[in-house]
Amino acid sequence: MTGRATGAPTLWCEHAWLPDGPAAAVAIEISDGRISSVRPGAARAGTVLDGITVPGFVNAHSHAFHRALRGHPAGHATSFWSWRDDMYRVADRLDPDSYRRLATAVYAEMALAGYTSVTEFHYLHHGRGGHPYDDPNAMGHALVDAAAAAGIRLTLLDTCYLAGGIGEPLSPVQRRFADAHADAWAERLDPLLKIDDGDRVRLGAAVHSVRAVPEAELPIVAEWAAGGPLHVHLSEQTAENEACLAAYGRTPTAVLDYAGVLGPDTVAVHATHLTGDDVARLAASGTRVCLCPTTERDLGDGIGPASQLHEAGVGLCLGSDSQAVVDPFEEARGAEMHERLAHRVRQRFSPAQLLSMATGSTAGLAVGAPADLVTVALDSVRTAGIAPVGVLHAAGAADVTDVLVGGRWVVRERVHRHVERPAAALAAEITALREATCRP
What we know:
Strand order of the largest sheet: 3-2-1-4-13-14-15-16
Oligomer: single chain
CATH architecture of the largest domain: Alpha-Beta Barrel
Number of strands: 16
CATH topology of the largest domain: TIM Barrel
Radius of gyration: 21 Å
């Protein structure tokens, strides 16, 4: 942890999470958007960050527009499938301009919570009735613009969506999500490659699910995505497993495996209802799994086999998914607390393992890493008196004070530097969208 960079800006952290865990009085220098020097036990100098500074949180699975569903419980929404109907009504009212405004506010909320990057599982492609916009990727460009405005890194996963269910036609609103076939999806997607700068914006692909992409079309998506990010909703609901077994005689995991979708660049989202064979296939292929604890309990999905996956060597990451909560601490705690409930143990994952899941960093703050840093107060009513190593078990999004992305301030002293009054923006956009869903 040596290597002083002359002239680089210096941050002095009361505590910072380093590869060996939290350390005190840590000076961090930044050059060209990366950490160039880390020195624990340093004299107080430069920009002082009280609290504990950790690597930026990575939101590995997001549907930005689902934020409009938070706090609007519907009496009929007794299951995932009835909840989905309300989600469809919201999706049907968005256009590129309103989506840009809403997503900008949502991404600003994420930044204020400590997220420095987001992976957007993007399937809202076309206009109402499935009619393409003049720019067939207008909705994707809206998300790119929103992330830039909010100062957050974006991995845009353009999602292949072809069917209303296994062997079922598309519903009217699902036509907004769908392309005619996988080759048409790939043809639409190719022009988006120019947005990928390898730093602030990355382009990847997603299979919505085995429900929405027929088995014969899956290899086309896998081939297009080869070498880049590829995500897929997997076994979120038992009904999905039952339909897949009835149609193909195999579990969703086995269908994806035979089609070449699984692999080291693939992330399976949820993976809540798996067989032992499914876990073995994920492990053998190097596929990672993204848990979304707050959404999985909000929708009543169930508790996934995180321990079994971890013990099999499957890498785990975390996402906010439906935005029922935007709080990386709560997602990390959820992963641990679900395990405690399911297995009646006191600790399943160590603090360092939870931090790795939440940040994608196995080394803490280290020289050469991107200067994506988050400072968390240790003097709030939630964190007062805690050990720094226990920050993920005690803190919440409201305790985030400062956020840097690539060495640039995005949040300073709890204020977003680029989006004015994000709460007001969220209220305005969601109110307008909800009111629109009530009109014919």
